[in-house]
Amino acid sequence: MRKIVAKQEHCIGCGICEVHCITQHSKSKDIIKAYNRERPRPISRVRLELNKPVSFAIQCRHCNDAPCASACLTGAMHKDEKTGLVTHNPEKCMGCWTCVMVCPYGAIKIDKEGHVVTKCDQCADLDTPACVANCPNGALECVEVES
Full-prediction pTM beyond 0.70? Predict the structure, then answer.
């Protein structure tokens, strides 16, 4: 199973991870269009935590026990036992925010316009998640772990 690991000693707090996450999850896949033209504006699934001099990116850790999936009232959050990823189906989400409250990492975001949540999907259609591929300092890394 692949996990994204944040290395705070390499993070400079530039926020490029958030920019590329928004772009990757936009309809156009274009930075300018994603930021200036698309409505609703795409939401980054990674959050940059800044408390200088420390900074690091937070995204879903796809926990083995997945408390968000256990707490989900509608089954919108699902732990895929085959891939190890915790996936979210916005069609099933009723916006109760239970998953937000139980996430130990604060990695699930509220989509206020869509009245659902959003979370890291590790850019399922890419070999390397956009945040990892575009981090200028290598502060985000994909590692294989046993599930």
Answer: yes
* Sequence letter at residue 55: S
> Whole-angstrom Cα distance, residue 140 to residue 18?
12
Contact indicator for 20, 131 with CB cutoff of 8 Å: yes
Asked if residues 20 and 46 have their Cβ atoms less than 8 Å apart, the reply is no
Question: In a 3-state reduction of DSSP, which class is residue 105?
Answer: coil
Angle value at C-alpha 41, between 33 and 60, nearest 5 degrees: 115
**Spatial distance between the Cα atoms of 138 and 143, rounded to a whole number of angstroms:** 13
- Mapped onto helix, strand or coil, the DSSP state of residue 130 is helix
Render pLDDT for 94-113 as a digit per residue (tens, 0 to 9): 999 999 999 999 999 999 88
Per the CB < 8 A criterion, the answer to whether 60 and 119 are in contact is yes
